[in-house]
Design brief:
The complex is a heterodimer of chains A (about 200) and B (about 725).
Chain A: E1 4-8, E2 15-19, H1 26-41, H2 48-68, H3 74-93, H4 101-114, H5 117-120, H6 133-141, H7 177-201
Helix pairs in contact in A: 1-2, 1-3, 2-3, 3-4, 4-6
Chain B: H1 30-59, H2 66-97, H3 112-116, E1 123-129, H4 134-151, E2 157-163, H5 168-185, E3 191-195, H6 202-214, E4 220-223, E5 229-230, H7 232-244, E6 248-253, E7 256-258, H8 263-287, E8 298-301, H9 302-308, H10 327-337, E9 341-345, E10 351-354, H11 359-375, H12 377-380, H13 387-418, H14 426-457, H15 464-500, H16 521-544, H17 546-560, H18 562-569, H19 584-587, H20 591-604, H21 611-615, H22 617-624, H23 626-635, H24 646-659, H25 666-673, H26 676-688, H27 696-708, H28 720-723
Parallel strand pairs in B: 1-2, 1-4, 2-3, 6-9, 7-10
Antiparallel strand pairs in B: 4-8, 5-10, 6-8
Helix pairs in contact in B: 1-2, 1-14, 2-8, 2-13, 2-14, 4-5, 4-7, 4-20, 5-22, 5-23, 8-15, 10-13, 11-13, 11-15, 13-15, 14-15, 15-17, 16-17, 16-18, 22-23, 23-26, 24-26
Classes of the chains: A mainly alpha (about 200), B alpha/beta (about 725).
Chain lengths: ~200, ~725
């Protein structure tokens, strides 16, 4: 297969990069390129130079891997290599934080977003050789939790006796003379009103 | 201050007595309570007995037949209900206009010194959600948060979004919206998100779960619904009132309806704004320290709530038994039983909620509420309730059972008319006319008094033109409600019967906006049988007698026109441009609502993906976006035994990628989403797949995703403040 040539122009100088995979078709590697481009864009790396550098570095590693295992597609190898590079990079940043590998991967990606990595340190994304201390610190402190520390309480239902009608009584409500008198007066008034209605309608 | 639970030495679990009051601070005095209740219930009793007596005189011409006796029996609870509403409103109008302020008004317990004093209490604002519109929920939280921040008391409040969503898309969207909101507001450690894996006991279980996990950290809990909005000043005020009144366990505010965009929604919103305050003032008058809790827009004292308000399951199985669905009334009763008052706080502004947009949505909501209220039948005769708590249960049940009773009343009326035994004799005719006059007065007098109050005082609107428009709107809403009531009667009757027959209700998210417009098939299918019933009944009435047809025609006409009525009232042509059905919140929205509206408008204008991607945006994000995927994985709890279903999940994720999201069920997708390793695997597997192995859905998603979502988390939330 003919070597692919990609020319990348930067304000500084033109760089010509050779990429010549020994296995796989041009169509397959083009697909792998396009997929990697989309993948790194999903990281919101708006710096195209860094994105292109990353794509090419990943493709080179993918080409080596494809030579060993040509049954899998170049796209698959390319994403696997991107993942491996990311894991190595995050592993360095989160060293000593007692996180599992998948936690490092999940939280690490999130940490890069939360500290505005794509905007502040786009050139250092997946750069194992150059880790700005402030970026590493920002990423480490960005790991969040979704809830505060638990303070567990017991909340146990009390059984309700559904059987008998028995009202709770208000304080001081037990039948005093005055309350009986009040209700008697009320009864007389209401009976009087009803008697009037009866008289009117009889 | 004392928030510790009352001494339980004299109280066993089976105690039938109320626990003595903790303190009288915040609890109306016994003398006041007695006087108010005696006055109120005397009027109710009098009105009811007079009505029953007149009805008896009307029926008792040549002795009372069985169907006349049944008619009278059905009439009693209906007339009682009518009287309760009438006297509540009438006293409410009096309370709003009395020269001296209400001595029981909790706002009056706060002095100027209290307003200056620092807040010492910590309060959790919790928002239980279930498959809700994520943008609306989180923009609502933002509005409340910002409003609180403006009071300078934000540090005393924490926010918890408690999700029971079982739709994976919603779940992921909630996570992304939570993160973005925290990032925008710099609110990490102030706004928290919790997703329950198993939504046991629905909303009340969700709240209990919060109480068990974090309840001890806070003195108070303010419960918001997904559509609730509360102003910061009111939230701070509620905490101050609770601090000042340690005898109060729950304070319920009056949430005003907002945000309606359909005719029915606006009419309900208008009616609530105009008539609601009088009813609230009236309720406050006679409920005193035994008010109800409506489940949201309320503040709760957490210590007694945790100690005493856990809900026991009811006997028998669901739907009539089992888990208590309408938990709020029961929690209020339990709180009162524990010796703490439950109070209504009369509020003009600061507490808001949204209502259902259409008649069908109203009925769907009522189906759930009916089942919940009917369950309270178990508790009606239970030991130990305060009599007013018991009455609250009864009124809740009757709010639905009155519909089949009214239906039965009309059926028995038809039977009576068919026998030819109309009103005969001078006494019966006079009694009938008197009863009609009395009933019309009970129905319309409160409305007229409230309108008169508005015209004279300008309580809602100061400009006289707006007051007159309010009068016109009120006249029009009479027609809307006259058409609506018989339709509701038929459906509520069905709900009651279905509940008694043991038909349960699925837990579904409530629609709060019309969204895509009216689907004509839905009203036709829903109300077709109602219209046929109306026509059949009309034909029967015609053959019985023309005066009877005339008497029953308002009900029958409403049933016959149910379909066009439902369609017409679902219209977004809501007469707002004619100045009708206006509310103060529509004309002069307070800052908290204005901010919410601006943010929602901004999100509405965002570029959209293809509809199929838009519907599954959460899934697209968690699979494609490295950051959203990372967020989801980092929020998942590690599984103890992650390997037993691994192969099956890998099979499902492969199927999802190669055949698209429709190839697996919602439950399977949710199961996959709970496995952190599988979710990570899914992300890489999707990006690794060649074009020819990807489902068309994913090909489209990969092509569109980076174009539409320049930032993975902004799709759901406004960005205005961030930019500022």
């Amino acid at each position: 297969m003919a070597p692919l040539e990609t020319a990348v122009s930067s304000p500084m100088e033109a760089v010509t990069i050779h990429f010549a995979p020994k296995t796989g078709s041009e169509e397959e590697w083009n697909e792998a390129y396009a997929r990697l481009a989309d993948y790194f864009r999903a990281y919101r790396l708006h710096n195209r130079i860094r994105r292109t550098q990353l794509i090419l570095e990943t493709l080179r590693r993918a080409a080596d891997a494809h030579e060993i295992d040509p049954k899998r597609s170049p796209t698959s190898h390319a994403i696997e290599q991107a993942r491996a590079m990311l894991r190595e990079w995050l592993g360095q940043i989160y060293q000593g934080m007692e996180l599992t590998e998948s936690q490092i991967e999940g939280s690490g990606r999130l940490g890069f977003h939360l500290c505005d990595g794509p905007g502040r340190w786009p050139h250092f994304f997946i750069d194992r050789d150059n880790l700005p201390p402030d970026m590493a610190e920002a990423m480490r402190s960005a790991i969040r939790t979704s809830g505060p520390r638990l303070q567990v309480s017991k909340m146990t239902p009390r059984p309700i006796d559904l059987g008998l009608f028995d009202d709770g009584e208000e304080e001081g409500e037990e039948g005093s003379v005055s309350s009986t008198l009040r209700y008697l007066i009320l009864f007389i008034i209401i009976t009087g009103v009803l008697a009037t209605v009866y008289w009117l309608t009889r | 201050m004392n928030t510790s639970p009352p001494s339980s030495s004299s109280e066993s679990n089976n105690s039938s007595r109320l626990t003595p009051l903790q303190t009288h601070a915040g609890i109306p005095s016994l003398a006041t309570t007695r006087l108010r209740r005696t006055t109120f219930f005397s009027f109710v009793f009098l009105g009811t007995v007079v009505g029953i007596w007149l009805m008896f005189l009307m029926l008792d011409v040549d002795g009372v037949t069985w169907y006349e006796a049944a008619l009278l029996a059905v009439f009693v609870p209906l007339y009682y209900q009518l009287n309760v509403g009438f006297w509540t409103a009438l006293i409410g109008v009096w309370m709003m206009n009395r020269p001296k302020p209400d001595p029981l008004d909790l706002n009056r317990t706060i002095t100027n010194d209290d307003l200056e004093a620092p807040l010492n209490a910590t309060t959790a604002i919790i928002v239980p959600v279930y498959n809700e519109d994520v943008t609306r929920v989180f923009e609502g939280v933002r509005a409340v948060y910002n409003s609180l921040q403006r009071t300078g008391k934000l540090e005393h409040f924490d926010f918890f979004i408690l999700s029971d969503s079982d739709d994976s898309n919603k779940w992921i969207e909630e996570e992304a919206a939570w993160l973005e909101l925290c990032r925008q507001l710099n609110a990490f450690g102030r706004i928290f998100y919790r997703k329950r894996r198993t939504p046991i006991n629905r909303k009340s279980g969700n709240v209990s779960d919060f109480c068990r996990r974090w309840g001890k950290r806070y003195r108070y809990m303010i419960v918001l619904d997904a559509d609730s909005i509360m102003a910061g000043s009111l939230l701070v005020n509620m905490v101050r009132i609770m601090e000042k009144n340690p005898g109060v366990g729950i304070i319920q505010t009056f949430p005003k309806q907002i945000g309606a965009d359909t005719l029915l929604g606006r009419v309900m919103q208008f009616a609530q704004a105009l008539y609601g305050p009088a009813f609230i003032a009236g309720l406050n008058y006679w409920q005193c320290g035994e008010a109800n809790f409506w489940g949201h827009n309320a503040i709760i004292r957490l210590a007694p709530f945790i100690e005493y308000c856990a809900l026991p399951p009811l006997p028998e199985k669901v739907p009539f038994g089992g888990h208590i669905m309408s938990h709020d009334f029961v929690e209020a009763a339990l709180m009162r039983k524990a010796g703490y008052a439950v109070r209504l706080l009369y509020t003009d502004e600061g507490s808001y909620e949204e209502g259902p947009p259409t008649l069908i949505d109203t009925l769907k909501r009522d189906r759930r509420w009916c089942l919940g209220n009917m369950q309270h039948f178990w508790l009606l005769f239970a030991k130990g309730w305060h009599p007013i708590s018991r009455l609250n249960f009864y009124h809740g049940i009757m709010s639905y059972v009155s519909s089949p009773l009214w239906f039965l009343f009309l059926v028995l009326g038809t039977v009576t008319a068919s026998t030819g035994q109309g009103m005969m004799g001078q006494q019966a005719t006079f009694a009938g006319q008197l009863l009609l006059g009395l009933t019309v007065m009970f129905i319309f007098l409160p409305k007229m008094l409230i309108l008169m109050d508005e015209v004279l005082t300008g309580r809602l609107f100061k400009p006289f033109r707006l007051r007159l428009l309010t009068v016109v709107s009120s006249l029009l809403d009479t027609f809307i409600f006259a058409f609506m009531a018989p339709i509701m009667m038929i459906f509520h009757s069905q709900f009651v019967v279905k509940t008694i027959l043991g038909q349960g209700v699925r837990w579904v998210a409530q629609r709060r906006k019309l969204g895509t417009g009216i689907d004509w098939r839905e009203p036709i299918l829903t109300f077709g049988s109602t219209a046929i019933l109306g026509l059949g009944w009309g034909a029967l009435a015609f053959f019985i007698s023309k005066p009877f047809l005339l008497w029953i025609s308002p009900v029958l006409i409403a049933l016959v026109v149910a379909i066009p009525f439902a369609i017409m009232t679902s219209s977004t042509r809501s007469l707002q441009r004619f100045g009708l059905f206006l509310t103060p919140e529509e004309l002069y929205p307070p800052p908290v609502l204005q901010a919410l509206e601006e943010h929602l408008d901004e999100v509405k204008d965002r570029p959209k993906m293809q509809p199929e991607l838009e519907q599954r945006f959460g899934l697209v994000q968690v699979c494609l976006d490295p950051y959203v995927n990372g967020l989801h994985v980092s929020l998942l709890r590690r599984r103890k035994n992650p390997h037993h279903s691994r192969e099956y999940f890998i099979y499902l994720s492969h199927k999802l990628i190669s055949q698209g999201p429709n190839s697996i069920t919602s439950r399977e997708l949710t199961a996959v989403m709970y496995d952190a390793d599988i979710v990570t695997h899914l992300h890489y597997e999707l990006w690794s797949s060649s074009e020819d192995t990807l489902a068309p859905f994913w090909k489209l998603a990969i092509r569109q995703y980076n174009l539409i979502a320049p930032n993975p988390f902004i799709h759901l939330l406004a960005q205005k403040e961030v930019a500022a």
